[in-house]
Amino acid sequence: MTTSQLLAVDLVLSVLAAGAWITAVWLTVSSTRSTTNRAVDASRAAGLGVLVVGVAVALTVARYALLPALVAGSWWFASERTTINLPLTAIPAAWAALAGVPYLLRRRNTGSTTEGTTPPHPAREHPAREHPARAREWAVLAVVAAAASAVASLALTFILGPFPAPWSVAVLLALMVLTVLLAKLVLFTPRRLNRTGGGVEGDVAAGLEGRTSGAPPWGRRPTAAAAVAGLMACTALGSGVFAWLGSRSADGAVIAAAVGHHEGGKAASVANPTPVTSLLGESPANPAVRRYELTARVEQVTLPSGQHTEAWTFGSLPGPALEATLGEVMEVELKNRDVTAGVTLHWHGYDVPNAMDGVAGATQDAVMPGQSMTYRFTAAQAGTYWYHTHQDSAEGVRKGLYGTFVVHDPTVSRAETDIVVAGHDLSGLGLLGSSDRTSTYSAALGSSVRMRLINTDSLPQRYLVEGTSFKAVAVDGTEVNQPGEVSGQLVRLGAGGRVDIAFTMTDRPVTLRSDSASSAVVVAAPPDSPDVTVPEKAPPGIFNTTPVLDLLDYGEPRAGSGLEEATLTREEVVVLDRQFRFVDGIPRYAFTVNGAAYPLVPSIDVALGDTVKVTVVNRTADPHPMHPHGHHVQVLSRNGVAPTGSPLVLDTVDVLPGEVWELLLHADNPGIWMDHCHNLDHAAEGMMMLLKYQGVSSPFVHGGHAGNRPE
Questions:
Q1: Dihedral sign, CA of 692, 698, 700, 702?
Q2: Dihedral (CA of 224, 228, 234, 237) sign
Q3: Phi and psi at residue 276, to the nearest 5°
Q4: Phi and psi at residue 432, in whole multiples of 5°?
Q5: Which of 86, 354, 365, 677 could form a disulfide with 279 if both were Cys (CB 3.0 to 4.6 A apart)?
């Protein structure tokens, strides 16, 4: 089993174990009923209790039977499981088994007729085994402790997260102890009884309750019990209020300038920080300028299939195709006609100067209806990229505010047929390019064809090429060294990712399909080829049975890749998780980074020239395509295995469930940069953080009067 599958099994076992222990508490308490008219029910409850306790113990043991496999799979959090979670649940479970099972077996076998009537023998020293009332109390409290620990284990997973702070573990343990104390006060504290028939009033211990006709099976002390319950509620409520108050800083929060690393002593203050608005880059003298104008608007669109839907567009779906040649200056004026949420332009994967990055609340304010902004930067990277809004992008990109951006290298021969294919899901309608049906391109027999595949969606896409073999010649805009021929394999793109494929046109049509656009197909065919009917759909099940091209061992290694000379100046760990948190003051089952939701996630602070090793760990059941703005990263390893093919340089790293990626980042582009999951719904629910350079500040705020929403 893979690490992600093992973790899924572990999660199921932990939920079932918590449910079993809670059920065991109810059955154990029910078995303490000692009035004769309920003896049969009590005996039956005891029998079921033995069974459920056994199941609960088995589930608890099974969780830790998975631990060696997780360790063997290099699971990053095996030490946390061993040092915190294991003793937290194993000790109470062992207590419950040793104290609860013998008691329940006696209750099942003897019923209630003898319980509580035999005084303890003075020579007997083990009260838990020999004094019936004490045995009952011991058994019930042990099972309560096991149930509390199982729930606490879930809290570690869903609330506290990996490597919790000592104070948070202390609070969790205190709540467990208070739970057991509350059970003791409610179930086993003596009470004053007044028998109306005989006028007898006295303290009746729980062990004597069987002598009192009609008495409930346990005594109560409401004041003490209420006090303990109130303390527990205040502890839990206080923690929640603390988190809520912290999350309220989201609206109008200012991004402080980075003044030093998180570790390594005191950081020096920055007297005159550089604002992001001044980081405009350099332009060549007398450059050729490519000018474009994009107008964001709300409109009704009709697709080739005849389907109608409302979209937010830059004038078309996708937006106008932008192109440039290395050395030219891009000048793009963005206007907002009527998109009330506001818009920006972010250049995905393009390492623009920070002022041009287009992130509302970090590098600019959102462009609202009637406003405009001009983006200007030098085209310094060749390859396939795309642009999209970075204001409320979870909704804006999904509805159509995206387009393609290609930069050509004049020293490299261009393919005779160059096709840009943006895969997108528009309100449930799968698009390849601008069509949800067939798009046909003419390519001469024997000519070179390049298809630039761009995943503009928030979910991964798999592409199937039929009719020829191909080469994957570029990944995320970076050329692959000596790519080999590929056939019978899918190309998988995480959200935001790009792969360029190339092939020589054959005498029959070549088709491209995506699992996210079942009715769309791109066809390349010679202009004089006989008409060939292309099936409307891909063969059933082919996307589930065809293997996926692994880019980590594709192509050939390149000498002088930079890893040999790299000297690390710092290391960072980024843990991706899902926990109950407050996002903008609203409780959510949020997607978190290092246990926090944006904007409360601590930033990675760097200095210009740093070389940073970043370890990204995915603890969730979802893939997370992590996208650092303004930088590319080189892959050092995935799950401990280094790439064996061409150096893999990415701007969007698709980290699958349970995976651990090690990345190398060179801090060579000053600014305040977003780093976030490009499943934009995940980003909107907290999975974002900042990469901040020392001495750089931002005058823009999250929320505020401009309504900035940077996800």
A1: positive
A2: negative
A3: -60, -30
A4: -120, 110
A5: 354
